[in-house]
Specification:
Order of helices and strands: HHEHEHEHHEHHHEHHHHHHH
Structural class: mainly alpha
Strand order of the largest sheet: 3-2-1-4-5
Largest sheet: 5 strands, parallel
Length: 377
């Protein structure tokens, strides 16, 4: 096979089929960061002042209520640091919820427990119907698409808005941030997790039962109805202040006894298997390239360090068969059935019904109105 072309400035390469390079060999991911994100990203006093203004408005809107904001807690680095920031530094009163989709690692459970206990908070837990989750996850494996983590992601996403609407909280805090996530996964790697039309189509073709309790949302509800009719806003506090991953990890370890993960998103055993093995071996997609590029562009990792790390596989070759068996058994599949899914022809989101055209129109309109930043990806 032809060796992929790699950007001279980061580690993104032509395994992203839509990548483009300028004459010097710098990719469009880097150019998008330099032209759209960096000039508008303020983490100094200007950013902090803006955040304080937002916080005061949140407190005003939450006056007299049990909670003034809501945030999800996965036990990962971003949500954990955000919870510490919201409570101890910003003085907010968040409703903290956790979505249990059946795949929590013990490390994630411990991290959630120590954070909630030491910050003296209550935790609201939503348990997803396990039989339906298994059915939907099996359907995604059988479909042949790379984005088999959509059932989990969609459940988290839909539940977040459900809680905000149910408890009449106008502000949702999320750990999304430019510092560690300024580069998005290419759409062909991880398609929109909120596309309910695709979820329904894949389930109708490959599922076995019915989705009676699984939380489904749709783009009109969460992009139009909730923000513009119900006035529910999404706030990203980590974008208004310096957020250095290594420093955040160290603080959480020392202050809360928080435990670090080998890689971003590994708080879920399913996501760990999917991102480190399934995407890498079946499709040739290494999500570390996206994660490391974000760190390179924000000055937290050198390109040389990233290239060295990428020389090794993202999973443990000696123990991956145990993870493979664990996932198969937990989904009530024979190992041979999961292997058959792995060996089957690869498909993309375009092979199934989807709402991509609606997303594209919405993104174009929002960019035109100045409501989002970023390139056309």
């Amino acid at each position: 096979m032809k060796e992929p072309q790699v950007c001279i400035n980061c580690v993104m390469d032509t395994t992203d089929s839509q990548i483009t390079f300028d004459e010097q060999g710098v990719c469009d991911h880097c150019h998008t960061f330099d032209s759209h994100i960096k000039p508008n990203w303020n983490t100094g006093q200007k950013g902090w002042d803006k955040l304080q203004s937002i916080v005061q408005q949140i407190k005003k809107e939450g006056k007299g209520k049990d909670f003034d904001c809501i945030m999800g807690m996965s036990g990962g680095i971003d949500s954990s640091y955000l919870l510490y920031l919201a409570v101890e530094k910003l003085g907010l009163r968040p409703l903290v919820f956790h979505v249990d989709a059946g795949w929590n690692s013990q490390t994630a459970v411990n991290n959630i427990e120590v954070m909630i206990e030491k910050l003296n908070l209550d935790l609201f837990t939503e348990v997803i119907d396990w039989e339906e989750m298994k059915d939907l996850q099996r359907a995604f494996f059988r479909s042949g698409v790379p984005h088999v983590d959509t059932p989990q992601d969609h459940a988290f996403f839909a539940t977040m808005y459900k809680f905000a609407d149910k408890y009449k909280v106008n502000n949702i805090l999320t750990g999304a941030n430019y510092s560690t996530e300024c580069i998005r996964n290419p759409k062909e790697w991880m398609y929109f997790q909120s596309d309910s039309r695709q979820i329904k189509d894949i389930f109708n073709q490959f599922g076995e039962g019915k989705l009676k309790n699984y939380p489904l949302t749709n783009i009109i509800w969460h992009k139009v109805y909730l923000p513009y009719i119900k006035n529910i806003k999404v706030v990203t506090p980590l974008n208004y202040m310096p957020y250095i991953k290594t420093e955040a990890v160290q603080l959480l370890k020392e202050k809360f006894g928080w435990q670090e993960y080998p890689q971003k998103h590994f708080e879920s055993r399913f996501t760990k298997f999917y991102e480190s093995y399934w995407l890498y071996e079946k499709f040739g997609y290494d999500v570390r390239k996206v994660q490391y590029t974000s760190l390179i562009l924000t000055g937290q990792m050198t390109r040389e360090e990233a290239m060295e790390k990428l020389k090794s596989k993202p999973y443990d070759p000696l123990n991956i068969h145990h993870d493979f068996e664990f996932v198969a058994n937990k989904l009530d599949m024979e190992v041979s059935q999961l292997q058959a899914c792995f060996d089957a022809p690869n498909k993309t989101y375009k092979d199934y019904k989807n709402q991509e055209s609606i997303y594209n129109i919405g993104a174009k309109v929002m960019r035109g109105l100045g409501l989002v930043r970023g390139g056309k990806r």
